[in-house]
UniProtKB/TrEMBL annotation:
Protein name: Inosine monophosphate dehydrogenase
PANTHER family, A to Z: 2-NITROPROPANE DIOXYGENASE, DIOXYGENASE FAMILY OXIDOREDUCTASE, PUTATIVE (AFU_ORTHOLOGUE AFUA_5G09600)-RELATED
SUPFAM superfamilies: Inosine monophosphate dehydrogenase (IMPDH)
Keyword tags: Flavoprotein, FMN, Oxidoreductase
InterPro entries reported in the protein's UniProt record: Aldolase_TIM (IPR013785), NMO (IPR004136)
Presence of the UniProt keyword Oxidoreductase in the record: yes
Molecular-function GO terms, alphabetical: nitronate monooxygenase activity
Length: 335
């Protein structure tokens, strides 16, 4: 194994790449394919309608890979929040050893997972939140830049700055880079900035094994880095979505709203998660809102996870070797 980072050593993986936990995408099919290819695959807990369904999905994944895989659990504001405690208990009972956490007030969940000896990767969009997570005892921080898909936070700090701030500010707690990564050059850059690996979400949506309609994958391949939209900023719940007709309509409502009241604004009808879920099933890119990062501009094909990870590994090694050749200890240029 050419890579020897804190992430590969701790998780027992060959390539320092983590598949992001994506709603309606992180099923056993994708998680097992990523793990079999040498990265870390993640099942998304809340994609499963009940804790017992999560148990079944974990057991299904075990029949598809013998390699390490984990579970993502994201805590977000909701009128009727899921039973996070029950999902956490299933994760522990099923012997999962790696969990990615994200979202608001994760302390109770993290404490339960830590008591069970589980390795925790916590995703955050600011250094302040990262420092709070350090106090909770997380093992890795996943530093999520403004380029990312979904919930981008409210600080608008891109990864080039955020990763260096993490290196300066987190007291040696290892971190990985999330948001804007799709190739080996990006992995090499993240390592150079102090990260122990990368997290990729949108890039893994555009693989053969991703359980979403081919039309969506084709749309991502055609897209440019400018084809996303930031919605819900007015309500401090900013989300980066693919800039389809529904997202643009929602943004127009937000911009024209004079009430400041989410319910009265009428934007809710455009933000249906269930309609977004159906996009991945029916292949109609404009049926509902769906998340995508600016990295869509770097995605040009739909490979298998194995081909993708091997390609990223090769590109990263070549980039690191090239960078080594740019200097010489004796001051003599290498030709």
């Amino acid at each position: 194994m050419p890579f020897n980072t804190a992430l590969t050593r701790k998780l027992g993986i060959a390539v320092p790449i983590v598949q992001g936990g994506m709603q309606w995408v992180g099923y056993a099919e994708l998680a097992s394919a990523v793990s079999n290819a040498g990265g870390l695959g993640l099942i998304t807990a809340l994609t499963q309608p009940t804790p017992e369904d999560l148990r079944k999905e974990i057991r299904k994944c075990r029949t598809m890979t013998q390699k390490p895989f984990g579970v993502n659990i994201t805590l977000l504001p909701a009128l009727a929040p899921p039973d996070y405690g029950a999902y956490t208990r299933v994760i522990i009972e099923e012997g999962i050893r790696i969990v990615e956490t994200a979202g608001n007030s994760p302390g109770p969940v993290i404490r339960e997972l830590k008591k069970a000896g589980i390795t925790i990767l916590h995703k955050c969009t600011t250094i302040r939140h990262a420092q709070s997570a350090v106090k909770l005892g997380v093992d890795f921080l996943s530093i999520d830049g403004f380029e990312c898909a979904g919930h981008v936070g409210e600080s608008d700090i891109t990864n080039f700055i955020l990763l260096s701030r993490a290196r300066q500010s987190l007291g040696g707690v290892p971190f990985i880079a999330s948001g804007g990564f799709a190739d080996g050059q990006g992995l090499a850059a993240a390592l150079a900035l102090g990260a122990e690996g990368i997290n990729m979400g949108t890039r893994f949506m555009c693989t053969v094994e991703a359980p979403i309609h081919q039309n969506i994958k084709d749309e991502i391949v055609k897209a440019q880095e400018t084809d996303t939209a930031l919605v819900l900023r007015k309500w401090r719940n900013t989300s980066r979505l693919y800039g389809n007709k529904v997202a643009k309509a929602a943004l127009k409502v937000e911009q024209e709203d004079t009430t400041g009241d989410f319910g009265k604004s009428g934007i809710g009808q455009y933000m249906s998660g269930q309609r977004g879920r159906q996009v991945f099933v029916n292949g109609d890119v404009d049926y509902g809102v769906w998340t995508a990062g600016q990295v869509i501009g770097l995605i040009h094909d739909v490979p298998t996870c194995d081909v993708l990870i091997k390609r990223i590994e090769k590109e990263a090694i070549e980039t690191l070797q090239k960078n080594q050749s740019l200097w010489s200890a004796d001051g003599q240029a290498k030709l």
